[in-house]
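so my prof wants the structure for this chain in the tokens format not the other one, which i didnt know existed until like an hour ago. anyway here's the sequence
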Amino acid sequence: MPLMKLTKTEVERMPLTENGQKLYFDTELKGFGLLVSRQSKSYIAQKDIRGKSRRVNIGRHGTWTTDEARKEARKILASMDSGQDPVEIQTAKLMTNITLLSCYQIHKDLLKRKDAAEGTLNNYQFTMDNYLKDWWDRPIDKISRSEVRERHTLIGEKHGHVVANRAMQNFRAIYNTAMKEYEHLPPCPIIAVHWFKERRRQEPIPADKLPAWFNLTKKIKNPVRRDYQLFVLFTGIRRRDAASIRWEDIDLTKASLHRPKPKGGEDRAFTIPLPDICLEILERRERQNRILFGDNCPWVFPTFSRKGNKLIPVQEPKEQRQGLPSPHRLRDTYTTAANNAGLSPYDIDVLTNHRPAKGSVTAGYIRQDFEYLRVQQQKVADYLKLHLKMCEKDSLGQCRNEKN
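here's what i got, hopefully its the right format
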């Protein structure tokens, strides 16, 4: 490295580089230097600490005079002589501001840029509000392995194994996003978690129990909720997808339903044909909604907010209290019915918007014709109607001016 006595005159006389950087060290104060680049001249202090070269940027010439920079360098070099690592100190100060909450905000912004589904965003918020709130202001690198392991166990005991696994998986995703922003973060402490074994719930309504289920739906006083239950059964779509259907998603001419932002986001958007009974349900909802909610209601399955001053999609049904299963069990029932009606696994995957099994080369080549899928969809509907013991009066229903 070039050596010279750094004075105001010499620093101002020194030309900028044509490319790259050049470092000049002061002959008077060892470790004090000037870094010259194409655009600026900056004062630095540099010294080896425990075998590692540490450089601290003091500031640009013009903002700092040469005498001021030398005095600052003398302080920095003295602290380095005592064994203090300025890089570690600076990193520690930075890390105190990297809280779980700030990292969650970074992750949430990333999800929004990727057009994540609203359900995904709500799931993260629920985790933060209900299971990790006492960690919000904690520096994320100070949350230890033992703490995440104990929290995972506690959530599992109180709320179930699936909930505990999802909460810690959300924490891991937030932490991994933070690691891309802050290079000094240690490995994610989630590696200490012993995951609970999960069993996928598959509880389709048996064929011989379908008439009893259907009779229970007839007792639902709310006509919107009655039709919502039937629509989920006869399409097999996810319960939140069904609840959020808008009239603009329906093409009655083509007898089709489009879901622009299902589970998985816009990349998983899909369109399916609708069987005859779903068209009857839509006809009924269009007629009754106009009576119950006015002409400008955007939702197929609407309700009023708790205060009654706003139209919103139908909320999570509470018919389970009346002996009805969760609407997601209706998806299992539809899938089972599709299999029993003779549909191929590829047809079922498309109609339910499932990803093909990993490694399935065949599924990557198959593209079912829409009208072919319409025939398959109707097969499922006919199978379900037969086992529901549904008559024409049941499917068409009567318009009732009931409160929602």
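also thought this was worth mentioning. The chain has a mean pLDDT of 86.
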